[in-house]
Amino acid sequence: MSHVIHRSLAQVPLVAVGGKGVELFDQAGKAYLDASGGAAVSCLGHAHPDVLAAMHRQLDQLAYAHTSFFTTEVQEALADHLVAHAPGGMTDVYFVSGGSEAVEAALKMARQYFVEIGQPERTHFVARRQSYHGNTLGALAVGGNEWRRKQFAPILMDVGRVAPAYEYRDRLDGESQPAYVARLLAEIDAKFQELGPDKVIAFVAEPVVGATLGAVAAPAGYWQGLRALCDRYGILLIADEVMCGMGRTGSLHAVEQEGISPDLMTIAKGLGGGYQPIGAVLAQRKIVEAMRRGSGLFQHGHTYIGHAMAAAAALAVQQVIQRDQLLPQVLARGAYLQKQLHARFDEHPHVGDIRGRGLFWGVELVQDRSSKATFDPAFKLHAKVKAQAMEQGLLCYPMGGTIDGLHGDHVLLAPPFISGEAELDQVVERLGDAIDKVLAQQP
Ligand code: PLP
């Protein structure tokens, strides 16, 4: 009998008792190849000796000091590291304990910026359908995952909603990629006009959509167009890199591959690699300067912001990524994973799309490849694939079924950056077997 309120109240999950490298172990001693790093978290795998050593050192020195009294050397060092590798103009960092907190802080910082510079009439956010930005009320409001928001919708702030950049399903037959991008940007422009461009605080989006769509990057030119559009109206651009950031796509930040710099950027999962709960907001100087010159403080704060143990773990994770040159490795192993996924699934009658960047891949499952018809949500394909993969000793992150009726089931893969080719072969083999076994049970 468990007294924990687990994610599913229908059953108590298996008990994890250990982890080493790319594997996790349950109480029965069974090993699981961690091909999703939980939810794209464990970028260095489990029990990395250098991270553990750094955490032990920090614990011996200082676990926690409240940020209304002190800063800590380790928090400052982590901020220095992040700023040294940040997209252009991002000069300041605000530390929190996870992704949703990072999004909340970014939304509030964006709003406060406009209050500080004398534009308090800006009160709206615009974001995309089929997106996920977290489960706290502000983050849930900007997110467009209908399944997660539905019962809370009456108590969420109103957010302007536009289409995701989801080429596989939304680019029209015969529409060129530039024409598709122009159509998406025109819709955003129209939404800004509808709300009043001087009433909008920020546009919020994931550079590579993670949980909701499965590693979907926008088509070329979208982010540059978006940046220009926001600049035209003085609207801030918030990039949510909680899942796709910190090296997952092969560059430290996914926006680097789009050639733009956002005004605010949220990071979390891969920042601490799961060794500690930590997230952060990176901010352009103009935003922090406006607060410094204005009220002199960011009107926000939680008890555990800037936590010393969390900062120590994250600093160690980021130093290992840099020292071991793991970003080029993400690109190389990502290209290998891409090749193996295509070899296994290109001819598969129920794989409609394979997309991704770096070590962040999505496989979309369809009933029919030519019509892209989805499976009946009642079949719960994604849940069955997750369970079958676990049977076969594989942890992957399937999702989908019911979002806006526009999207089917997908499997998200986000293996640790340290995965070898033989391990990636195993990922593809076990995933293929799991999908085939589940599809064989169709009514
Ligand atoms: N933003 C994005 C893009 C995410 O993928 C997630 C979590 O999956 C969040 C925000 C929320 O992060 P957390 O679960 O750490 O609160």
UniProtKB/TrEMBL annotation:
Protein keywords: Aminotransferase, Pyridoxal phosphate, Transferase
Source organism of the structure: Comamonas squillarum
Pfam families registered for this protein in UniProt: Aminotran_3 (PF00202)
Cofactor: pyridoxal 5'-phosphate
Record protein name field: Aspartate aminotransferase family protein
GO molecular function ontology, one term from the record: transaminase activity
InterPro entries named in the record: Aminotrans_3, Aminotrans_3_PPA_site, PyrdxlP-dep_Trfase, PyrdxlP-dep_Trfase_major, PyrdxlP-dep_Trfase_small
Family: Belongs to the class-III pyridoxal-phosphate-dependent aminotransferase family.
